[in-house]
Amino acid sequence: MSALCDVVHAFADGELSPAETEQFTGHLATCTKCQAELADIMQLATAGAAIAREGVVHAAPAAVEPSLVVPLFVDPTPLRRPWYRRGSAIAGVALSMAAAVLLTVVVPRDRALPEYSMNGPTGFVELTRGSTASTERPRVFVPDGIVAFRLLPAEPISGATPALGIFVAGPGSTLARIEGAEIRATEQGAFAVRANAKSMFGATPGEKSIYLVVAPTTAELDALRGRELRALENRSDLRVHTASVEYQITE
Amino acid sequence: MEALAREHESTLYAVALRMSREPSLARDLVQDTFERAMSKLDQFQSGTNARAWLTTIMTNLYVDRCRKRAREPIHEPIEDHPAVVAVQHEEAPAWARFSGEQLRVALAALSEDFRRVYELHAIEGRSYDEIAKELKIPKATVGTRLIRARRKLKELLLKQGRKAQEGEG
Questions:
Q1: Which of B8, B15, B84, B119 is the best residue to mutate to test the A interface, defined by the most A CB atoms within 10 Å of its own CB?
Q2: Which of A93, A206, A212, B36 could form a disulfide with A241 if both were Cys (CB 3.0 to 4.6 A apart)?
């Protein structure tokens, strides 16, 4: 055992200087202990990288069905238009989550989303059907760029060509509509959504609730911009599907 | 093999690049890994863990390169060397044949401090410095937590593997 054995992890992690790397690779050539340690590190590293590629960031609690997982994907295609208007006022009103229908969703893990060309998913939303407990918010690591995901409302959305809007709100903030979000109905009552990550979630890590609002016409959606969350309550003409996440944008 | 390459190339490259910090070297290493895998494809048991198998090949190739370099004058380009010597153990160790799901379960069993550092590093690809800043801990602590997280993960994955074997038996 040499003092150089201590740096095998830092070496595998690319944390050594070029001179240190040179010195260590010379040592690695002959040290079977470091070779074995490196082999272990590499196995965990490729498995971790594979998880990152799959977009799964943390373990699903045992109670969560595997299908209740929404991958967030990166789409390398740049958006054509900048956008995004946030609600301006800060209000201290929280929507009673019990009053909202949970956005439940979801994509079986083994199913791809053929409608987008994905270049490495890097985050995911994990939602438990029916759960709105604030302590159970999934953590989401969202890459900066375009994210695409699919939503499957708990109840089918019916009616003649309703208007759909995605809104977000942080704790105590008003509703901000994601102006550039593309929302398309797909098979089985699901919706494919594509939006800019920072516009969707905001650049500062924290808690955010996402609302898929279904309204009879776009006028109702327009009227919700900048309103407090209670504007969504007791509205028989709106269907609101919501989920809360703890998010963090990664560069 | 094409399917294997499609599935694992970016993963192997990410890890090789992190270690070597040299894109061309990482690309070569991954390329050589698939070439070797192709030549040994008959030894690969279908249905076993291809990621673990390819990782073993890549690690062995890298260590072989280090051996070659250690034996030869430094100024001689490594490309001039004949093909690397035969790798002795290309079978992935049993503990490494875990699935992503198994790793997620093991990760969930780590204490929060270790899991957070591990996730930031292995999954988000952050450097020690970035993690230290994010978590407001010394850089050296990031290193030690990573080491402990890895050792614990291996231990947990070994246990999972044993349980699975007992379940089958």
A1: B15
A2: A212
DSSP SS3 for A79:
coil
Taking the alpha carbons at both ends of chain A, their separation in whole angstroms is: 39
Residue A137 CB coordination number (10 Å):
20
Q: Does A46 sit within 8 Å of B54, measured CB to CB?
A: yes
Cβ contacts of B88 on chain A, cutoff 8 Å:
none
Instruction: Give the ipTM of the model, two decimals please.
Output: 0.88
CA-wise closest residue to A12 among B62, B165, B32, B8: B62
Please name the residue of chain A whose CA is at the shortest distance from the CA of residue B153.
A44
B residues 53-72 closer than 8 Å to A (CB): 54-56, 58-59, 62-63, 66-67, 69-71
Q: What is the pLDDT of residue A117?
A: 24
Tens digits of per-residue pLDDT, B44-91?
776 678 899 999 999 999 999 999 888 765 444 444 433 334 344 577
DSSP secondary structure letter of residue A114: T
* Tokens 């055992």 -> residue: A1
pLDDT of residue A36: 93
- Alpha carbons within 13 A on the beta-carbon side of A220: 17
Average pLDDT, chain B: 81
